[in-house]
Amino acid sequence: MDQKERDERIKDRQRRLVHKDLFLNLLLLLPPILLTLIIVATALYTFILSLALLYFVLPMYYTVEKRMRYSVTGIGKDNFTYADGYRAFFKSNMGGIFGIINILVTFLLLLIVLAFLFELAFVPLLRCFPQSYEAYLELGKLTSDPSFQLADQYQFMIDNGHAFTQPLTILVGVTAFLPLAYALFYAVPSNLDNHQIATIVLPDIDKNLSAAQARTLSRIQFARNFQGYRWKNSLRLNWPFLLSFTLLYGLSLYGCSMITTTNTYVMPVILLLCPSLSVLYGTFFVYFWVGNDYAVLEESQDVLLSSLPPQIRATVYQTYCNPSYIHGEESAARGCFVPATDQPGTPDFPSDAEGTPSPFPPSFEEERKPEEAQKTQEQPTGVVIDLSQEEEKDEEK
Fold first, then answer.
1. What is the mean pLDDT of residues 209-213?
2. DSSP of 65-87
3. CB neighbours of 158 closer than 8 A, spacing ≥ 6?
4. Which residues pair with 351 in a beta bridge?
5. Which residues contact 174 (CB under 8 A, 6 or more apart)?
6. C-alpha dihedral sign at 171, 172, 175, 180
7. Which of 226, 279, 341, 366 is exposed most, by the fewest CB atoms within 10 A?
8. Is the confidence at residue 358, as pLDDT, over 70?
9. What are the contacts of 1-4 at 24+ separation with CB within 8 A?
10. Alpha carbons 121 and 118: distance in angstroms, whole number
11. How far is CA 397 from the centre of its chain?
12. Does residue 149 sit in helix, strand or coil?
């Protein structure tokens, strides 16, 4: 397949993304976004402990991702609901599909490092706001008084802290931009793309491994030699979303920096208003970003296959054809990713006219009744590919 033909097929899948269900999918995206906005906007009141509640909002995001994936691939349940999403998260093995713990840890580390760097600009920034600089000088006089006590500083901040609202809004907004861009346009798409690659290489992998294990397996084996190609095409299609996010963030930060208050207790909400709003429009951008990524992945399976080393191909083939590997709808739609002709040493597994191996050896369907075959597919008995416990622990969320 040449690049021109591939681009046409990618565009066709992009058109599926704006399917008739697009409005409903975006509507279903609003409740989790609003909950996320509330959690982020109140983070300072809870010393960022409220961010842990994001995990209980993720099933709603997964519901939308699952519906979007169906629009692009045509595989799965077209009417996936919130109830299905929560069931998959807490009764199945999909809890680690977003890798939220790793994202939050990296986000907070970036935030801390940038806060230390931008702290140097705080005093020069204060000079741009006379009221704020005057309060700063008054605080300096208070702290230089020999009778100064911490209780005095606390009371001063309660009475006059609101004077620092505008410069702090700018400082918080600038500091949060890079961590937010990392989380929205790098970490989340990377985790979802790696999971999708695992699903392409080993259909129904979610029936055999947790989502976190599938992501790890994809990152360290399946997609190792494919990442450059994936990111090049992802940026080629999605750079307008990143540019739009940057422009909107700048405009919203400018608008939020104009907000003043006389109530210090309201100030934390104003400080986080710009980052919170960025989650609103940024999440919609991520919806189309990931959808475009899925379109690229689906139409670049030949490139992905050619990037796999021979040893990995053999492992994928043997795992997929192993009778203990659980198959389902994805296996029926995709078949084995590695053609049977690519594995001349495995003649026991028949292939169809296109060289795609049957999910099970010949004796499986011949010796068992259809009911028993379906029961075997639904009850896990193990898989060939395994991950170390250390990797599972690190990537579980």
1. 93
2. HHHHHHHHH--S-TT--HHHHHH
3. 264
4. 357
5. 118, 253
6. negative
7. 366
8. no
9. 1/302
10. 5
11. 11
12. coil
Alpha helices (H) in the chain, listed in sequence order: 3-17, 22-41, 58-73, 82-90, 100-118, 122-126, 130-144, 150-160, 165-182, 188-201, 211-217, 227-256, 267-271, 273-298, 301-307, 310-321, 329-334, 362-367, 370-378, 389-395
The token pair at 246 is 């940057």
- Is the predicted pLDDT of residue 179 greater than 90, yes or no? yes
Q: CA 316 to CA 312: how far, in whole Å? A: 6
Note the pLDDT of residue 148. Answer: 72
Which of these, 266, 267, 337, 343, lies nearest to 305 by C-alpha position? 337
Write the DSSP symbol of residue 53. G
- Measured between alpha carbons, how far is 176 from 58 in angstroms, rounded to an integer? 21
Asked whether the CA dihedral 163, 166, 170, 175 is positive or negative, the reply is: positive
Residue 341 has which token pair?
């002709």
